[in-house]
User: What shape does this take?
Amino acid sequence: MNGFIHIYTGDGKGKTTAAVGLTVRAIGNGLKVFFVQFIKGAHTGEIEIFQKFPELVDVYRCSTGFIYETPDNSQIETVRKCLKEVEEKIKENNYDMIVLDELSVALSTGLISRSDAERLIQLSENAEIIITGRNAPEWLIERADLVTEMKKLKHYFDRGIKARRGIEY
Assistant: This one.
């Protein structure tokens, strides 16, 4: 399968949710998925369900914690180690789909360099690649085959409603 690059970006809710939906569809059709999460590390329902299908979904979490404008040295070192492990898993496995959740955020904050991202994409070229996160860089948008911008028109978070288990995570 020669895959396409999908990007889900913007300030609206639903970027990771779109990637999760594509993952569910893929595993429902017997495809092998590598679901990589940059930055996120908290418990989420989607990771719980993916772990019930270890023969179809490999989950890798590269949790750096919250980034205040620029990453600190420990966050950068964490991501460097993660990138090596992610690259090895991509080389060792024949994935049909690779989700790079929050890759755009990792790029825009400087956690991951453009050359690192390009190397991941190159290694994954035979798989469908799903990239999520705000602030997708223009070079990545140009390279993609499908780009969806999630735009916030209204959100209950603005009224002080906190993230809810089973809905936001």
User: Anything to note?
Assistant: The chain has a mean pLDDT of 92. The helical segments are 15-28, 45-50, 73-92, 103-108, 114-123, 138-143. Residues 44 and 169 are 5 Å apart (CA to CA).
